């Protein structure tokens, strides 16, 4: 008998295993992933090779080879489903967060976008001044492949020269019009006036070496030869000119003189915790940070609790068994959720207008809704309440469907009033299901830039502090500080973003911890 069992087991193990059935959806998904990987590879290889980014090119090649090897084999089925999600997670979650954090430790922004060599070139070419008696040229801009070049016509000899970043060379076969503009040139694409205007910054930045100076554009139809007033001296690592000397400050990414003044053009450099220290120590920032944070918390909490209370109340009313016409009510109630938020926010802004706004006309009042701090804050909360309660209504309706009616019926049989049954049975079960959504809604409203920027624009602003308004959230305050009149300061904006992330993460962590305890109680 033991022998029979062994023979059956041996026969079962020697029987060929059935092949996994390959579905059409699996084949299509495999082809789609391979096609996307191939498209990314073909798109990224030329620019990476042109810039000499060999490390990035090698990593891209290895990743593409790994993806191709994975999806061209029948093995590793679980990995075929995990890899796309992991790639999207890294690309859209991990990388942006890591890039923001690393940017917070730099001075990246206007005037600090390139390296030191690019800054030196920009300083020297930007300080070019026309010397007395230096030649002037009629200028025409053109493209040689993708390179911007100058076509320079000498007004005396009428000869045409080709000007590039490498230098000046004669150009034969060019056709010159009566105005001195080049109409055609062999091997070049002459730019028309609108095309040249669109490349104004590139034209202004191009400097053609000529003799002991350079040729720079003066507008779109004229070029002059001059010399740089500021010259970089590698021996002292400084810029000299105009009777002054600016020494390189590697920590700040600027050339600074003895008076502490710096040249406008700098380079990207690591500043350590300088941006974070600026947030905490600069009185124009730290002096208002606590007040803005307090209103930010009030706005987020009022928005979440208000929308949840209103949405839950409407959902409970429509969930009642005696309620009729619930479908029509639900369609009407989700209309605010279906409307484009940015458009409705601007409509609400006009409705709050003091002179011709609909609200004042209906009330017969003359309230300056967005001109006073109290009414402006009340107004933005009401607008956010109107926009947000349909979402809470939808999720609460779904959660109510999952709560058995037998629980509330049993509570009423035990003598509980409707209010006590709701407070002791329905609400706790709703909170178990909806608390994660409430936490995510709080995080969203904490950074709800559109709700403020498109209605009150952060105002009203007091006369003594036009930099921070009564309805400013941290995100709008950050935007004004980092991208206001002083230009873009991406490093500083990233530092404040890290502060905001830490605050939201701390509040969310505490809330999730309390949620887990609540789930254990009602499990």
Automatic annotation (TrEMBL):
Its main location: membrane. It comes from the Bacteria. The chain crosses the membrane at residues 25-45, 51-72, 81-99, 288-316, 328-348, 378-404, 425-444, 490-512. It is a multi-pass membrane protein. InterPro entries: MalF_N, MetI-like, MetI-like_sf, TM_PBP2_N. The keyword Zinc-finger does not apply. It is found in: Cell membrane. Keywords: Cell membrane, Membrane, Sugar transport, Transmembrane, Transmembrane helix, Transport. PROSITE patterns: ABC_TM1. It holds the Pfam family TM_PBP2_N. SUPFAM superfamilies: MalF N-terminal region-like (SSF160964), MetI-like (SSF161098). Residues 293-511 form the ABC transmembrane type-1 domain. Coiled coil: none annotated. The keyword Transmembrane helix applies. Part of the ABC transporter complex MalEFGK involved in maltose/maltodextrin import. Probably responsible for the translocation of the substrate across the membrane. Belongs to the binding-protein-dependent transport system permease family. MalFG subfamily. This is Maltose/maltodextrin transport system permease protein. It comes from Nonomuraea rosea.
């Amino acid at each position: 008998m033991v022998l029979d069992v062994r023979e059956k087991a041996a026969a079962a193990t020697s029987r060929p295993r059935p092949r996994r059935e390959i579905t059409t959806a699996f084949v299509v998904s495999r082809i789609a992933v391979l096609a996307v990987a191939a498209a990314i590879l073909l798109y990224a290889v030329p620019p990476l090779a042109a810039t000499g980014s060999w490390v990035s090119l090698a990593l891209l090649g290895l990743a593409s080879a790994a993806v191709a090897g994975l999806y061209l084999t029948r093995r590793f089925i679980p990995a075929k489903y995990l890899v796309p999600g992991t790639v999207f997670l890294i690309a859209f979650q991990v990388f942006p967060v890591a890039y923001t954090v690393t940017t917070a430790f730099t001075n990246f922004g206007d005037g600090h976008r390139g390296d030191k060599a690019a800054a030196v070139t920009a300083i020297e070419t930007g300080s070019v001044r026309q010397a007395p008696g230096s030649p002037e040229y009629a200028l025409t801009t053109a493209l040689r492949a993708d390179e911007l070049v100058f076509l320079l016509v000498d007004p005396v000899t009428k000869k045409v020269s080709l000007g590039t970043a490498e230098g000046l060379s004669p150009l034969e076969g060019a056709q010159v019009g009566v105005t001195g503009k080049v109409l055609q040139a062999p091997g070049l694409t002459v730019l028309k006036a609108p095309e040249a205007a669109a490349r104004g910054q590139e034209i202004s930045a191009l400097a053609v070496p000529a003799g002991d100076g350079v040729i720079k554009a003066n507008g779109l139809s004229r070029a002059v030869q001059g010399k740089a007033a500021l010259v970089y001296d590698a021996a002292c690592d400084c810029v000299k000119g105009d009777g002054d000397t600016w020494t390189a400050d590697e920590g700040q990414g600027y050339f600074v003189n003895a008076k502490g003044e710096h040249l406008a053009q700098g380079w990207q450099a690591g500043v350590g915790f300088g941006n974070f220290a600026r947030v905490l120590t600069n009185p124009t920032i730290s002096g208002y940070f606590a007040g803005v944070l307090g209103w930010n918390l009030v706005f987020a909490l009022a928005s979440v609790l208000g929308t949840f209370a209103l949405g839950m109340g409407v959902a409970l009313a429509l969930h009642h068994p005696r309620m009729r016409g619930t479908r029509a009510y639900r369609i009407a109630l989700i209309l605010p959720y279906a409307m484009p938020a940015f458009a409705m926010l601007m409509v609400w802004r006009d409705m709050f207008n003091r002179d011709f706004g609909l609200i004042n006309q209906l009330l017969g009042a003359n309230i300056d809704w967005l001109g006073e701090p109290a009414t402006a804050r009340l107004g933005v909360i009401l607008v956010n309440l109107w926009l947000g309660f349909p979402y809470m209504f939808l999720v609460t309706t779904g959660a109510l469907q999952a709560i058995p009616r037998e629980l509330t019926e049993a509570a009423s049989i035990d003598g509980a009033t409707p209010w006590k049954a709701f407070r002791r049975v329905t609400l706790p079960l709703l909170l178990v299901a909806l608390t994660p959504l409430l936490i995510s809604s709080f995080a969203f409203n904490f950074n709800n830039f559109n709700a403020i920027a498109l209605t009150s624009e952060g105002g009203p602003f007091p006369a003594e502090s036009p930099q921070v308004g009564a309805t400013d959230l941290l995100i709008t305050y950050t935007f004004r500080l980092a991208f206001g009149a002083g230009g873009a300061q991406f490093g500083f904006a990233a530092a404040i973003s890290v502060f905001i992330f830490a605050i939201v993460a701390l509040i969310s962590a505490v809330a999730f911890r309390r949620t887990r305890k609540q789930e254990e109680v009602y499990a």
